[in-house]
Amino acid sequence: MALTGHGRRAADWFVGGVLVMALAGVTGCSGDTDSTADKKPAAAGGSASAGSEKAGEGEQESGSPTPPSSAADRATAEGAVAAWVAAVIKGDAEEACLLMGEAAADTSPAKVGSPETCAGDAPQAKQMEKAVEGFRESFTPEPPTDDPKVEAARTPATGDEVVIPADRITVDGKTLEEVILSNSTGVNSEDLNVNVEAGKIEDAWYVTNLDFDIG
User: Fold this and answer.
1) Which residues contact 158 (CB under 8 A, 6 or more apart)?
2) How far apart are CA 110 and CA 65, in angstroms?
3) Three-state secondary structure call for residue 188
């Protein structure tokens, strides 16, 4: 991944009802850090393949519930975040898209990823493929595995929102912060600020934003 930039924010938007991820980057990669080694996330989210699912009870449009779309556990914010990180590492852009959403705001209804918007040749599906391809290298530990075990620590919610820092997410026993740093050059733990945000939409949790700040 050719990550470039100066600590910009990576955010998710729905544009015309379509989920689009805008990438921001880091340059290149190295250096392990022990600054978060003693933080032990609880197995709240479990791996991306685990858990039952409330089947996307969010709304694609006002009054129109989305159909079941993912086998991931969206009963908790931690489960949704863990599943999303695992999907990125696996390069599963469709699954990552299905796990993302945007809460209702003012006159805008809540929107979540659906099979129609996240699969095939849909424009947002193509954009998500590029986004996942961009982040996959940074999120993948060495040695990589076909089925990464991702867990997110239980994190207090503020209303229907939860922000989980990268040092409270583990991938095969390493914190996501450590993984990102090990895949970077010229970046240390003080420079890195990565948070995955989740929101509750119609009784299910979705990843709503990714803050990826460097420097």
Assistant:
1) none
2) 10
3) coil
Torsion sign over Cα 161, 66, 112, 43:
positive
Task: Report in angstroms the alpha-carbon separations of 157 from 7, 16, 48, 55.
Answer: 26, 29, 21, 21
| Rounded CA separation 20/24 (Å) | 13
Among residues 31, 23, 27, 29, which one has the least CA distance to residue 3? 27
pLDDT in tens, 90-141: 999 999 999 998 888 888 888 888 888 888 888 888 888 888 888 899 999 9
Q: State which amino acid sits at residue 143.
A: P
Residue corresponding to tokens 């090990």: 182
Q: What is the pLDDT of residues 22-44, one digit of tens each?
A: 332 222 223 333 433 344 444 43
Top pLDDT among 92 and 214 is at 92
CA 160 and chain centroid, separation = 17
- Residues contacting 209, CB < 8 A, separation 6+: 11, 12, 196, 197
- Please state, in angstroms and rounded to a whole number, the distance separating the CA atoms of residues 74 and 184: 31
Q: Does the N-terminal peptide bond of residue 143 adopt cis geometry, omega within 30 degrees of 0? A: yes
Residue with tokens 């100066």: 6
What pTM does this model have? 0.71
- Token readout for 81 is 């975040």
Q: List Cα–Cα distances, 99 to 3, 91, 144, in angstroms.
A: 24, 14, 22
